[in-house]
Automatic annotation (TrEMBL):
Lineage: superkingdom: Eukaryota
Key word Repeat present: yes
Biological classification of the source: Eukaryota, Metazoa, Chordata, Craniata, Vertebrata
Organism: Larimichthys crocea (Large yellow croaker)
Identification of the protein by name: RWD domain-containing protein 4 Protein FAM28A
Coiled-coil regions, chain positions: 1739-1773
Region (Disordered): 226-258, 409-431, 1980-2004
Ranges annotated as biased composition (Polar residues): 421-431
Domain NACHT intervals: 743-874
Length: 2004
């Protein structure tokens, strides 16, 4: 293959591997860039590689010259390149790019270990410095001159993300800033930040002294500077620029950027100091600050004509919106389309706030990224409107014109304006391109109280007038005196002077002021009122049209008489940030070419402006529309205006009845969708899903917690901005913080008294109160839905604490564990970094876990300050009193505070109140002096005008009354129903009311404009927050929540009905339910290693069970949620299995207890640890625990009910899982129902030792860092901690002397410490032997035995640990000292210590006071081995293990008298006891033992009743306990190696359970030694048990027999026999000779006939290991090894003789027949190797050269002799091909031999001289054609994976540099090799024929080791890996499909060959055979084997249909 071909193949592989990888960039086909590390990684670098023409035979060119690497020093670059060149040399001749990149990624830390960033960044300097530097630079260097083309290329160059580099537009920025003098101050801002803070603090402290409004700007400016000082420079520049626009004259489009007084609640808040942690050091503050959470949503505003664009807008909402919503949801974004015109026929509003409402919603959309304005225009002019407010000067000028006309009309007739008004009166000057001109109104263009909003003139107003009215209102001709009088009267009647505005304005009165019927509930009254208002509105508009031009000028007239669309486009067609309008605005322009030919149509008025009564276009309005379009084209580039033509139809534009119109709307919809998606893709930041689902979930949980934390920070910042009151109280809080060092501080106050604001202020001020780098944690209960769950609250706090004080610890998720971890983390807080925790609103915690606050306790650890707040007299307050907090009650607001606050608010809003109004407001606030009442009362006073009747103004005296008054007002104006959108549509009364008001609503949905208006009127009382992954609204304050509930949900039935409506909303089965309310939005990711992306509908997953429970619908809850597999899967995955357990605890039926719930809850608790790591195992865990239970749940008789009502359906759904899941055939995990353990968390690192106290249930543990924890097991929490001393990490811990002394043992070290003070009393570390300790005399005497010698020391702990005795003891039998060979009793009587040696059969009693052995106790049989010793008041207990029956053992407890030391009796245990730790209770009646079994991986807790001799197995635990203790038959406590959790059992309920009793006659439950599938009948498998002589036969296809074998045989063979199985026959080799050299008898047992069918004697089969025998030729031939293991032997089992010997043939060139023994012996003469340098060779003599060549020839000859000698090595191992045709043998040599079983010849010798070849890690194809193995090349010092062609005896392919390979598999055609590397969690895939190589990342806790096994299946598409857990891998998609976690070890595994993925598992603790299939296999089709007939009589005519 040529170099070019190699390059093409490698290039194709690189493109396939790195497709979509942002780290890889292809510059050209021979040049590449690869980024090592993430962008934000300071150690990242970019590697440039270029291929020469002869690559890969020559090295590629590598460079680190990219600009990205400028911060890397030259030395570091050289070091990186040198190490990379070493890798290149090692891979020359092969495709090395992937290897090189991956090696660089894995060794990034090593490559950059000496990296020190080089400072090359541009620093900000003052303008003068810049000028000086620039001038100096000009003199020093001359810049390179670039051509224009070069400059363009540089400018357009993008990085590997396709983005322009940072600073590409700095030139434009500088140009702009130079034009703004104000921006020149930016560089000085950092130097005055401290001054601004000081001034702001002064302003706050003197706030109450501000009496004049004119002084308030100083305060506000200081507040603004204070809140914004941490923003970045770009944000400050943008704000300053906006301030310039507000303070100076603006152009014709800037006034709408002034923010409304009613700001949306989702404004982005400035970043403050106290994010997750606040420090006094600026650098530390920036390091700890979290970034502001991205608002991941898009809002698109849709606007157009009310009538003429209905078809287009409706098509978008009905067809496109669901698709875009789904598109965004799949990528983790929210999407909404806001159309305030949809469903609304008339835009009339009571308060004339339509324009303000529209523009505010548009501005809200503009705050989001992506497209935010879509305009639809036709050929009809927009709605004309009346201004809602007119400045006093302007209105009085208009009145003067009207009065002048009135005066002139008395003298002579005056001609009026033209018919439809002059052109200039309704259009603007098109030259400016602006829709609204700059004018005297610029001060009123803020959409607040002074906004010049308009009352709208309906498009149907023309048709609403009678002909007489039209004639009267027509401006054509001369106005009579009476008409002019009426005009003036009408103008003055509807506009009233409002002097509460500054400056005063004339305000358009609400419609109901003169037409009360507008608010009537009677539809006819509303219709008449609307008609009257339309007439008045039309007249007013004509009056203004005629007069305003003359009074104010034509430009002012156009501004005053603007349209709604003018307002929207002026606000929307502006640059947002740096983006021009084309980035976010699009326009669809519709033209109807034949419109003029259909002017007589009855529908034409909806699409064109006609003259009244004529089929003619109104020329004035038509011209106005043309000018409007001209301005639109000037504002928006033509590329964003899409023109579409459509023909006229019979009903105008009607897509439902016209196919061409339908095609038109479909084209519009398709183009709109494509346009929006393209725009969204530019701004979306979609995180691509990589790795297994467990990693994806862990990352998702981390992101959710961080976003939740940031929301609380933002909320605190928002509250801090408004903290202007109670400065004195803050000083009190400061004093309390400084004084209450160990007690929490509790802030109490009634609702609305500002507790949350005070807490926000404390969070901001705490760093100045507490010395050190303070860490501040803040939590506001109720801000989000998650913030009310106490478990999630603690989880959030623990995450923040761990990040600050223990970064790499793994945290728990359950509440009890989080409580302990929270206290442990608090203990890590030091004086250099103190902690302040603020928890606000604890009385608002939800009902989950009973709002448990018991974790708030005293005393607090040092340097920890805890501040709490709650409502006075709440139940929460009473609970918190138990913590003895320092209570601070919030005082009422002072009169000065109230007055100052109201004056400041009035000045800010540019308002004033009349004297009586001011008095009313102040008196009301004084009557209820709380901040919330003040804010609410002031917001209500903003509705007051100067002409409002004083009698109509009132403010209730209480906050509740004020809220009720506000709700009553909203009910009058908006209706009496306050539910939302789709929920509203479910209420027939609401829908009927809306339909009567908006008759154009054609579908049962509430118009969005109603909700928008309600939201606007509620203002600050409604807050939008992001909860459960979506944006929802909540009441801002809890008090309003309670008021609304009491007002609208007065009864329990009404509350339940509301919950039922919510539940129905989530359960909707509508057309788009899969879009809007699925369980999750899924997206198939493309690319290698990518998995399907899931965005969970958390709101439904949380809300549906909640509302079903609270609506009393328990049965639907059970069927649709709790026993719905898909729901459980998504909830466990999207949330947590703990949330499922919380829901199950609520699923309580009033009349009965469901067994299903109890069993399911138990199964989930047992699998909790697994499901928290990998929720996708839910199906396998449920099937593995409940499978057998469900199969056995059958009715005894016809008509009987099943025990379980729901579990059957749940298990059936597991089989149909939407995920690929490995499903077991039956129960292979521990089933629920037994005694469960409780995990205790609190350790930050692994637990190393465990000890117990003597006074109550007190435990003490040691961590790997040496710290000690004391546990109160009664309450399951940590009560004390001790720091390590002297670096001692305990291996064992003992408490003594009434738990006042602590003895710690580590290796050869011993340490005695006082518990109270932690002081070390005694220590020793010079001992050679390992000390083993116990105590006696009630803990007073410490007895230390030394393992490895006979020394014993006795210390008196009561006398400062003084040494009493140091003696050597002796026993009758000499002990064999090994690790932990000494056994000591934990209990003691008098001064006795009972001890024994494991190897001996005796124990002894040692007297601690005397210092000698009192008595020796011997076991009753010499074969006994000691397992444990213990003593009670009456007995000395010896736990002895004896041989039992055949090949078994049993435990006896031998009892001796404590008085006479005589043997009394023995208690028998059972053969399943593996004694590790033994404890007896205080009464001496019971013994409890921990029995861990390393073979099975299971620990059992067993008990003996010493009086009744009753023996019980209490509990089983799926792990090996390394240490255990029992506390007086109540609590058992254990630890496991490498874990940080403790495991606690409460034995109280099970100690007397007689069903747990075991006896000696109960059969031992043994595992499976070997699984043998029956080849000709694949539906059966034979299993050989670990217990000798037992064989099971299993039917794999019959569901009825998945839990039990179809045949069991016992006693067929002994432990020394060899048994082989084939075709339901057992071939037993037995009857070995006396010398044990040969098997002499063959027995053949037929499993079907259940009898021996053959007995062959006289055979001579040489003994080998069991696995080295193979049956061939259908059982006629036996393959084994010779006695010397030098050759293969084939025995003929029919005759019993040797059939053939297969020997390796020796070639003539290798072995000479005449060679002597000496020729083959090694030359043992020592030769000193001399290194010959090249210059030595050039100068050496001829004789020296000859000697050197002779030495080299001799060395080569010796090497050949060694290789020849290896040919005589014995066989180490052999592999037999699947078709039993080829055998490969290894010899501990540099070669392998290949033999043919058919020809019985030596075929090939596979030789590799530099490598020793072995078959330990090897695999062979089924036909024996290829062999893959691993080896190490000693010459090159490189590991290899080599693929051998066994037919040719040659190497086919090699893969180098793969070290540590421990398991390997190969496909049948050898086109794919899969292998695993020790210590990693990756599988690697090598395709030799395609020359591709991939590395697949596994799941989180995967660790491949030498015991791992891997198999390929489905033609190499998938792989099965057994490495502690069973996992299924998709090798094509490079992902892990499924994982199956075990409770016990798997003894053996056998894959079944075929199309399906199926394996058979033999367990170590159970004889059950488990077949595991993936769900796509079980669902696909029935196994063909299931059609075979049954052979063991298991068929039944009455049995149900069986599944595979």
């Amino acid at each position: 293959m040529t170099a070019n071909e190699d390059q093409e193949m490698e290039l194709e592989a690189l493109r396939s591997i790195y497709e979509g990888d942002e780290c890889f960039k292809e510059i050209s086909p021979v040049s590449f860039q690869f980024r090592i590390g993430e962008l934000e990684d300071t150690k990242a670098f970019i590697l440039d590689i270029t291929w020469p023409e002869t690559y890969p035979e020559t090295a590629p060119t590598m460079s680190l010259d990219a600009f990205f690497n400028n911060r890397i020093s030259a030395d570091t670059k050289q070091q990186i390149l040198s190490k990379l060149e070493e890798q290149v040399e090692a891979n020359l001749g092969t495709a090395m790019m992937y290897t090189l990149f991956e090696w660089a990624k894995e060794n990034q830390e090593a490559l950059m270990e000496n990296h020190k960033p080089v400072v090359t960044a541009v620093t900000l300097t003052s303008s003068s410095d810049v000028m000086t530097t620039a001038s100096t630079a000009k003199k020093k260097e001359k810049k390179e001159q670039l051509t224009k083309a070069q400059k363009r290329r540089i400018i357009s160059r993008t990085d590997n993300k396709g983005e322009l580099p940072r600073g590409w537009n700095w030139v434009d920025v500088i140009k702009k800033t130079n034009r703004k003098r104000h921006d020149s101050k930016l560089s000085e801002e950092s130097s005055i930040t401290a001054h601004l803070r000081l001034e702001a603090a002064k302003a706050f402290s003197d706030f109450h002294e501000y009496e004049t409004i004119g002084d308030s700007p100083k305060l506000l400016r200081s507040m603004e500077e204070l809140n914004g000082d941490d923003e970045d420079e770009e944000e400050r520049a943008r704000k300053d620029k906006r301030c310039v626009h507000e303070d100076t004259e603006t152009d014709s489009g800037t006034y709408l950027s002034v923010r409304s007084n009613r700001d949306d609640v989702d404004d982005k808040l400035p970043v403050a100091d106290f994010f997750c942690g606040t420090t006094t050091d600026d650098g530390q503050r920036k390091e700890d600050a979290l970034s502001v959470t991205e608002e991941k949503r898009f809002l698109v505003y849709i606007c157009g004509g009310y009538k003429d664009t209905v078809a287009e807008r409706s098509a978008l909402m009905e067809n496109v919106y669901p698709r875009l919503y789904l598109y965004c949801k799949q990528r983790g974004y929210e999407f909404s389309m806001v159309d305030l015109r949809l469903g609304v026929g008339t835009p009339i509003a009571e308060h004339h706030d339509t324009v303000e409402l529209h523009v505010e919603n548009l501005q809200r959309c503009q705050k989001t990224q992506g497209p935010n304005l879509i305009v639809f225009v036709g050929q009809k002019y927009e709605v004309r409107s009346l201004p809602s407010t007119i400045p006093r000067e302007a209105f009085e000028a208009i009145v003067r014109v009207v009065e002048r006309d009135q005066q002139m009309s008395r003298d002579e007739p005056v001609k009026d304006l033209p018919a439809s008004g002059s052109r200039s009166s309704i259009t603007t000057d098109s030259r400016s391109g602006s829709f609204i001109q700059d004018s005297i109104y610029r001060n009123y263009l803020n959409f607040g109280e002074q906004a010049t909003d308009s009352g709208l003139l309906s498009q149907s107003s023309h048709s609403s007038f009678s002909e007489a009215e039209e004639a009267r209102l027509s401006p054509v001709g001369v106005k009579s005196q009476g008409d002019l009088d009426k005009d003036l009267t009408l103008l003055q009647m509807w506009y009233k002077l409002d002097e509460n505005c500054l400056p005063p304005v004339y305000r358009l009165l609400p419609i109901s002021s003169h037409h009360p019927g507008m608010l009537s509930v009677d539809r006819e009254c509303r219709r008449r009122a609307g008609k009257d208002w339309s007439a008045a509105c039309h007249t007013l508009w004509r009056v203004l049209q005629r007069s305003v031009g003359e009074a104010l000028g034509q430009e002012e007239a156009s501004l005053l008489l603007r349209t709604v669309l003018d307002w929207e486009l002026e606000a929307g067609l502006k640059s947002v940030g740096d983006a021009p309008p084309e980035e976010h605005c699009h326009c669809y322009k519709r033209l109807i070419p034949d419109l003029n030919h259909n002017l007589k149509s009855e529908h034409i008025s909806q699409y064109a402006d006609l003259l009244k009564g004529k089929a003619q276009l109104d020329p004035v309005l038509t011209k106005a529309h043309q000018k409007f379009m001209e301005r639109l084209h000037k504002k928006l580039r033509h590329t964003n205006i899409y023109e579409r033509n459509v023909g006229w139809g019979r009903r105008g534009l009607n897509p439902k009845h016209n196919h061409s119109h339908q095609f038109y709307t479909e084209r519009i919809s398709s183009h709109f969708q494509m346009t929006v998606i393209n725009s969204l893709n530019k701004v979306m930041k979609v995180t691509r899903t990589r790795g297994h689902f467990d990693r994806v979930r862990r990352e998702a949980v981390r992101v959710q917690i961080q976003e939740e934390i940031q929301r609380h920070v933002n909320h605190g910042l928002h509250l801090w901005k408004g903290c202007t009151l109670r400065q004195t109280f803050l000083a009190d809080v400061k004093r309390a913080v400084e004084q209450s060092r160990t007690r929490p501080i509790l802030l109490l106050g009634p609702p609305g008294w500002g507790k949350s604001t005070i807490m926000a202020a404390v969070a901001q001020l705490a760093p100045s109160w507490v010395p050190g780098a303070v860490k501040v944690l803040v939590h506001f209960t109720g801000v989000t839905g998650e913030s009310r769950n106490i478990r999630l609250v603690l989880q959030s706090l623990c995450v923040q604490l761990a990040e600050a004080y223990c970064p790499h610890t793994q945290l728990s998720e359950s509440l009890p564990q989080l409580i302990n971890e929270f206290h442990s983390l608090l203990g890590l807080v030091g004086a250099e970094r103190p902690l302040v925790v603020l928890l606000d609103g604890l009385d608002e915690l939800s009902e989950e876990h009973g709002a448990d606050l018991s974790w708030i306790s005293t005393p607090l650890p040092p340097n920890v300050h805890l501040l709490l707040s709650a409502t006075t007299d709440s139940p929460c307050t009473q609970t918190l009193q138990s913590a003895r907090p320092t209570v601070l009650s919030l005082p009422p607001l002072s009169p000065d505070d109230i007055t100052a606050a109201l004056k400041t608010k009035l000045w800010t809003d540019q308002r004033r109140l009349q004297e009586q109004q001011w008095h009313l407001l102040v008196q009301a606030c004084l009557g209820c002096p709380c901040p919330l009442y003040l804010a609410t009362a002031y917001s209500e006073s903003k509705l007051w005008t100067s002409y409002s009747p004083q009698a109509s103004l009132s403010l209730p005296a209480s906050l509740e009354g004020l809220y009720l008054s506000m709700l009553a007002r909203l009910e009058r104006e908006l209706g009496k129903q306050l539910e939302l959108m789709d929920l509203l549509a479910k209420d027939e009364k609401v829908l009927q009311e809306v339909t009567s008001c908006y008759s154009s609503s054609s579908h049962p949905r509430i118009p969005y404009v109603l909700w928008a208006r309600l939201k606007r009127n509620l203002g600050c009382h409604l807050t939008e927050v992001r909860t459960d992954g979506t944006w929802v609204y909540r009441w801002t304050h809890s008090k309003l929540t309670h008021v609304c509930i009491n007002r609208y949900l007065k009864t329990d039935d009404s509350r339940m009905a509301l919950h039922a409506d919510y539940a129905d909303y989530y359960r909707a089965k509508s057309q788009h339910a899969h879009i809007f309310q699925p369980l999750a939005w899924t997206l198939d990711e493309e690319g290698e290693g990518m998995t399907k992306s899931y965005r969970f509908n958390l709101r439904k997953l949380r809300g549906l069970p909640f509302h079903l429970v609270h609506s009393g619908q328990i049965l639907p809850l059970l069927s649709e949620c709790m026993f719905n597999y898909e729901f459980l899967l998504h909830k466990a995955w999207g949330l947590s299995v703990l949330d499922i357990e919380e829901d199950l605890n609520k699923a309580v039926l009033p009349d009965k207890e469901l067994e299903d719930v109890k069993v399911l809850l138990g199964a989930l608790e047992m699998s909790r640890a697994v499901l928290l790591q990998d929720p996708c195992q839910l199906a396998s865990q449920l099937a593995g625990r409940l499978g057998q239970m469900i199969i056995e749940d059958r009715p005894v008789a016809k008509g009987d009910r099943l025990k379980f009502s729901y579990l059957h359906a749940l298990l059936a759904q597991c089989m149909q899982s939407t995920l690929t899941v490995l499903l077991p055939s039956s129960t292979f995990l521990l089933p629920p129902g037994g005694l469960q353990h409780t995990p205790l968390a609190g350790h930050m690192t692994n637990v190393t030792a465990l000890g117990g106290g003597h006074r109550g249930p007190l435990g003490v543990t040691s961590e790997s860092d040496g710290s000690l924890r004391f546990w109160d097991l009664e309450h399951r929490r940590i009560i004390r901690s001790l720091d390590p001393v002297g670096g001692v990490v305990g291996d064992s811990i003992t408490l003594s002397l009434d738990d006042r002394m602590l003895i710690i043992h580590m290796g050869q070290s011993l340490q005695v410490r006082e518990v109270e003070s932690g002081r070390v009393v005694y220590s020793e570390s010079d001992s050679v032997d390992v000390p083993v300790v116990t105590t006696t005399c009630d803990g007073q005497l410490l007895v230390v035995f030394y393992d490895g010698s006979h020394r014993v020391k006795v210390f008196d702990l009561a006398s400062s640990c003084s040494l009493l005795h140091h003696v050597n003891i002796s026993m009758e039998r000499e002990a064999i000292h090994r690790d932990r060979s000494i056994l000591l009793s934990n209990n003691s009587i008098k001064d006795y210590v009972l001890f024994a040696y494991r190897s001996g059969g005796e124990a002894a009693v040692f007297s601690a006071r005397v210092g000698s052995v009192l008595c020796v106790l011997s076991a009753q049989h010499g074969a006994a081995s000691m397992q444990a010793v213990e003593m009670t008041e009456d007995y000395l207990l010896l736990f002895c293990r004896y041989p039992y029956k055949r090949d078994g053992e049993i435990v006896h407890i031998e009892l001796f008298s404590t008085v006479s030391f005589l043997y009394l009796r023995s208690i028998l245990g059972c053969s399943q006891d593996y004694i590790s730790q033994v404890t007896v209770n205080q009464a001496g009646t019971h013994a409890v033992a921990f029995c861990p079994c390393p073979c099975t991986g299971i620990t059992e807790l067993v008990t003996w009743d010493l009086e009744t001799e009753d023996h019980k197995h209490i509990a089983r635990f799926p792990a090996v306990l390394t240490r255990g203790l029992c506390f007086d038959l109540r609590f058992c406590l254990g630890i496991c190696s490498g874990q940080k959790y403790l495991h606690l059992w409460d034995l109280t309920s099970r100690i007397t359970d007689q069903t747990l009793t075991y006896n000696i006659h109960k059969l031992r439950s043994d595992g499976t030694q070997e699984v043998i599938p029956m080849g000709k009948t694949p539906r059966y498998a034979v299993c050989r048990s670990i217990r000798a002589g037992t064989v099971y036969v299993w039917n794999l296809s019959r569901r009825r027999f998945v839990c039990r074998p179809v045949r069991v045989e016992h006693g067929l063979y002994g432990s020394t026999d060899v048994v082989l199985a084939r075709d339901f026959k057992l071939y037993i080799l037995t009857d070995r000779s006396s010398k044990g050299s040969r098997f002499q008898t063959l027995l053949v047992y037929d499993l079907i006939k259940r009898s021996y069918v053959r007995r062959q004697t006289g055979i001579t089969v040489i003994p080998c290991l069991q696995h080295e025998y193979r049956l061939l030729e259908e059982g006629r031939t036996l393959l084994g090894l010779s006695e010397t293991r030098g050759q293969l032997i084939l025995w003929d089992l029919d005759s019993g003789s040797i059939k053939h010997e297969i020997k390796p043939s020796q070639r003539e060139s290798s072995v000479c027949i005449s060679s002597t023994v000496q020729d083959l012996q090694a030359d043992v003469t020592a030769h000193r190797e001399t290194i010959v340098m090249p210059w030595d060779i050039r100068t050496e003599s001829q004789s020296a050269k000859m000697r050197r060549l002779e030495r080299e020839a001799q060395r080569e000859k010796e090497a050949m002799r060694r290789l020849e000698r290896e040919k005589y090595n014995c066989i180490e191992q052999y592999l037999l091909s699947g078709d039993e045709q080829v055998v490969v043998c290894s010899y501990f040599a540099h070669h392998l031999n290949v033999f043919s079983v058919v020809s019985q010849e030596h075929v090939h010798t596979l030789e590799d001289k530099p490598s020793q070849l072995s078959l330990h890690t090897a695999a062979m194809t089924h036909t024996g054609s290829y062999l893959v193995l691993t080896h190490y090349n000693h010459d090159q010092r490189t590991p290899y994976i080599t693929l051998w062609d066994l037919h040719k005896g040659t190497v086919r392919k090699r893969l180098r540099n793969e070290a540590g390979v421990c398991c390997v598999a190969i496909t049948d055609n050898a086109d794919r090799v899969v292998f695993g590397v020790t210590g990693t969690n990756r599988l690697k895939v090598w395709d030799p024929t395609q020359r591709t190589y991939r590395s697949i990342s596994g799941y989180g806790n995967l660790s491949i080791d030498i015991s791992s096994k891997v198999y390929v299946t489905e033609g190499g598409a998938k792989a099965i890996l057994l490495s502690g857990q069973l996992s299924l891998w998709d090798l094509e998609a490079c992902t892990v499909l499924s994982v199956l976690s075990m409770d016990a070890h798997v003894r053996c595994m056998m894959p079944l060959h075929g199309r399906e993925t199926c394996v058979l598992l033999g367990l170590s603790h159970s004889p059950a055979l488990i077949s595991v299939r993936s769900t796509f296999s079980t669902v696909s089709s029935e196994t063909p084997a299931s059609t075979d007939r049954d052979l063991f009589g298991e068929s039944s005519s009455s049995e149900e249909e069986e599944g595979s």
